[in-house]
Amino acid sequence: MKRLKVALLSGGISSEREVSIKSGNQVYEALDRAQYNVIRYDPAVDLGKLVADASSIDVAFIVLHGPYGEDGTVQGLLDLLRIPYQGSGVLGSALAMDKWTSKRLYKEAGLPVPPFKVLSTGQSYDAKALASEPGFPLIVKPRYGGSSIGTNIVHTMEGLPDALDMAFEYGPDVILEAYVEGTEITGGVLGNDDLQLLPIVEIIPEAGYTFFDYGAKYREGATREICPALINKAFSDIAQSCAATAHRALCCFGYSRTDMIIHNETVYVLETNTIPGMTPVSLFPLAARTAGISFSQLLDRLIELALENRHDYPNEPGPKRPI
Ligand SMILES: Nc1ncnc2c1ncn2[C@@H]1O[C@H](COP(=O)(O)OP(=O)(O)O)[C@@H](O)[C@H]1O
Ligand SMILES: [Mg+2]
Q1: Domains of the chain and any CATH numbers
Q2: What distance in Å separates the CA atoms of residue 184 and residue 212, rounded to the nearest whole number?
Q3: Closest ligand 1 atom to the C-alpha of 181?
Q4: Separation of 200 CA from ligand 2 center, angstroms?
Q5: Could you give the CA distance from residue 43 to residue 85 in angstroms, rounded to a whole number?
Q6: Would you say the CB of residue 279 lies under 6 angstroms from ligand 1?
Q7: pTM exceeding 0.85
Q8: Which member of 10, 14, 273, 282 is catalytic?
Q9: pLDDT tens by residue, 146-198
């Protein structure tokens, strides 16, 4: 059987470059060499080479997080090059990267979201009004971003200017969102037309972390990730269905992972990741493993789904031809 030529894309130019390189190394190790001939590309330096090699590439595996990788830009380039790739297309990737637009679509789909406001660079704000709606404590986060970079919890009005400065470092708009105290969970879905709902993962940062910040995410042992989650079945069923609704509301394909918090009786949706972390110990692979899908089987499945080439785009570009 002919081996598929896989372009593995990792690195890139976002603030999540280091995370992407780590995930990329793990994916590189785990891809089955009997099936795949894997060539690595770092979009920070290798875009020209990718374009030049396009006609010989069978499929791309994108392990890029954040803007210029997870947001539809690289997906658009691959569409132009007629290279299929795993996960969401241009539209789903762009929608999920935009936390503001995502929230509006979640609401339209009937998903509960924490109360929020959006501020743009230079826009004045009334701290007193914010104190009553959304109210303190607040989570301040960049509109486009990930890995909790530029995200802070603010307990009082005095803490707001610094948190805003940090978030504005990552783009012109910032989300101020009511802090929801509760059980943090995440839900993965896998599939194109038929979605497989993966078991919910519960996330418990060690004492000392007030939320799932960058350190809690990536420092070894800083967080307990429990799958299946310890929550009762009724909540995990609701959370799985929220993850599927969020995936569809944002026009995602292939797979995604939606972060949620359970507070009292409500499952609040925070955000959806279209290229979730991809080390074997990351949350999506953990959920897949709990469902009986090993890390390398998961990679096989994502490539299989990629080759179905289904992004619901009106004019599918058709067969590959020389550029
Ligand atoms: N409204 C909120 N209430 C409580 N914690 C939050 C809220 N929004 C974000 N967080 C915390 O911040 C983390 C990162 O926020 P999230 O919206 O998932 O963005 P990203 O993971 O893309 O940086 C979450 O995992 C959670 O721990
Ligand atoms: Mg998140």
Answers
A1: 4-86 (3.40.50.20), 95-112+181-307 (3.30.470.20), 116-178 (3.30.1490.20)
A2: 9
A3: 4
A4: 14
A5: 15
A6: no
A7: yes
A8: 273
A9: 888 899 999 998 999 999 999 999 999 999 999 999 999 999 999 999 999 99
Q: Tokens 């609704």 sit at which residue? A: 245
DSSP string, 99-168: HHHHHHHHHHTT-----EEEEETT----HHHHIIIIISSEEEEESB--TTTT-EEE-SGGGHHHHHHHHH
- The encoded tokens of residue 102 equal 């995502």
| Pocket of ligand 1 contains residue 184 by CB under 6 Å | yes
Three-state secondary structure call for residue 179:
coil
Cα 316 from Cα 231, distance rounded (Å): 42
pLDDT band, very low/low/confident/very high, at 132 (cuts 50, 70, 90): confident
- Relative to beta strand 223-226, strand 196-197 is unpaired
Over the stretch 209-254, which tens digit does the pLDDT of each residue have?
888 888 887 887 889 999 999 999 999 999 999 999 999 999 999 9
Ligand 1 in reach of 14 Cβ (< 6 A): no
With vertex at residue 320, the alpha carbon angle to CA 316 and CA 322, rounded to the nearest 5 degrees, is 135
d(CA 202, CA 227): 6
Angle separating helix axes 99-108 and 233-249, nearest 10 degrees: 110
